[in-house]
Design brief:
- It comes from Donghicola eburneus.
- Its EC number is 1.-.-.-.
- It is built from eight helices and eleven strands.
- By secondary structure, the chain is α/β, with parallel strands linked by helices.
- The protein has a single domain, classed as Aldolase class I (TIM Barrel), CATH 3.20.20.70.
- Helix 2 runs parallel beside helix 4, helix 4 packs parallel to helix 5 and helix 5 packs parallel to helix 6.
- The two termini are 13 Å apart.
Length: 283
């Protein structure tokens, strides 16, 4: 099974130049060639649906506007691959975002639904909603980056609302058995910081996902990509709460991956860097 790189669901959701989106007819047609090639070899492929939120730059946004986020709070230390002042592509500090209006949030959920519909037409076996690695959904989940006072801010229930509404809406379009969810509990990339009820928040997410039973939950451990490992004991707590199909990624070798499967907590192991370096990894 292949999971693609993140595909922005809109121009607004883009944070890096040259990433393949899923919001135009041309993109949809191009992806159809990819899915056909995978299916011709007997494989399965899910499209990762992506909105970076504040980890973006004005040069990538429609009409050069500010990126959007849960709150008007800059992603300190975060960089976007964008167009610099000299007109050339390169690493640029993420721009100051604006807070999404309450009435705008449904629009972004609709962008994910439309992207899932396009993905299905393009032949994907399912989609993975990217809620990890400091991007938009995590910006809502994190109590530091989310300073809202409406129904999408404050309590754990409110901070989870955007992610869960989007999962439910996408599932209504293509079926929950074709929807995966990627999360990175205790993520610290791109300026994300800890907060008081962090463990409770992620276990509440696990409980909500247990009720929904998506195709899978994909846990990203950030230790190998410049972040921090999840606290000792937390993965076991997560597994006790979410009992569905669980994928993990984060520096596994063949040996450690096999051992993790034998230990019983995980159902599937994801490989990124080794597969990129060697497209014949499976063989």
């Amino acid at each position: 099974m292949l999971i693609t790189e993140g595909a922005p669901v809109s121009q607004e959701g883009t944070g890096y130049l040259y990433t393949p989106g899923i919001y135009t007819d041309t993109q949809e047609a191009a992806w159809a060639k990819v899915t056909q090639a995978v299916h011709d070899r007997g494989g399965r492929i899910f499209l990762q649906l992506w909105h970076v939120g504040r980890v973006s730059h004005t040069s990538l946004q429609p009409d050069g506007s500010a990126p959007v986020s849960a709150s008007a709070q800059r992603a300190e230390g975060a960089f976007s691959f964008a167009i610099g002042p000299d007109g050339k592509p390169g690493q640029q500090p993420a721009s100051m975002p604006r807070a999404l209006l309450t009435t705008e949030i449904a629009r972004i959920t609709d962008d994910f639904v439309t992207a899932a519909r396009r993905a299905t037409r393009a032949g994907f076996d399912g989609v993975e909603i990217h809620g990890a690695n400091s991007y938009l959904f995590e910006q809502f989940l994190n109590a530091n980056s989310n300073q809202r006072t409406d129904r999408y801010g404050g309590s754990i229930e409110n901070r989870m609302r955007f992610l869960l509404e989007t999962i439910d809406a996408v599932a209504s379009e293509i079926g929950m058995n074709r929807v995966g969810v990627r999360i990175s509990p205790f993520g610290r990339l791109s300026g994300m910081q800890g907060y008081d009820d962090e463990a409770e928040t992620w276990l509440a997410v696990a409980k909500a996902l247990e009720i929904r039973q998506p195709a899978y939950v994909h846990l990203s451990d950030q230790l190998t990509i410049g972040g921090e490992a999840m606290p000792k004991g937390f993965p076991a707590q997560f597994c006790e709460t979410f009992t569905g199909t669980l994928i993990a990624a984060g520096g596994f070798t063949q040996e450690t991956g096999e051992q993790a499967l034998k230990d019983g907590a995980l159902d599937l192991i994801a490989y990124g860097k080794p597969f990129i370096a060697n497209p014949d990894l499976v063989e």
